Amino acid sequence: MATDLDPDAALMLRVKRGDRRAFEELVDKYKRPVTNVIYRTLGDATEAEDLAQNVFVQVYRSAHRYRASAKFTTWLFTIARNLCLNEIRRRSRHRAESLDAQDPEDRPGHQFEDVKGFSPPDALLHEELEQKIQQALSELPDNQRIAILLCRQDELSYEDIARVLGCSLSATKSLIHRGRETLKQKLKPYLRTGLWKE
Asked: Phi and psi (nearest 5°) for 120?
């Protein structure tokens, strides 16, 4: 892939040559999307911020190995996915309840949303729906959840998501389809039409 087709890959090649300003541009551009994906994968805002920081540390440390053979976002979200899966495995070995997770009212889950203005009653309904979506997402199998979350990233095609997940294009489409169907069933009581909006 030519780097002129992916300006982020060009920036990363500059990082590879030691350009810290290029690295700061990438962090500024992708900190929120990476944090969003991690938060929706793990359901813990503090952990999402910490892990997002680790993603960018890993990007910086791995800069010398970077090759612009795919889109930068594919490489970036592969790192994020791997760190999320490591954290999920770590959690399953060390089952411990987070103090933050005890009271859903105290969780800052909305801090990573794309905030739009809502009237107070609508804001309350929107927050409730967000909690239901987060709960439904958290109940999906890991690969389905990550596939759905990556699908929400505007720049990632199904092919890019397949590369991030390390599976075939048809398997990726199947994961996304099954995940959407499961979410649709779980969220049907909260949606007006019951139709999944693409």
From this structure: -50, -45
Tokens at 86, concatenated? 């490591």
Domains, in order of start, for the chain: 3-190 (1.10.1740.10)
Position 166, amino acid: G
The per-residue b/e assignment along 59-73, b for 16 or more CB within 10 angstroms, e otherwise, is beeebeeeebebbbb
> Which has the closest alpha carbon to 70: 166, 170, 145?
166
Compute the half-sphere exposure of residue 122: CA atoms within 13 Å on the CB side of its CA.
Answer: 5
Residues with Cβ < 8 Å from 117, sequence gap 6 or more? Answer: none
Both tokens of 100, joined, read: 């933050």
> Mean pLDDT per segment of 10 residues, for the chain of length 198 residues?
69 92 94 91 88 94 87 90 86 58 43 49 65 81 86 77 88 90 83 53
* Cβ 144 vs Cβ 179: under 8 Å: yes
Alpha helices in the chain (DSSP H): 7-16, 20-42, 45-61, 72-93, 120-138, 142-151, 158-165, 169-187
Query: What is the C-alpha separation between 1 and 67, in angstroms, rounded?
Result: 10
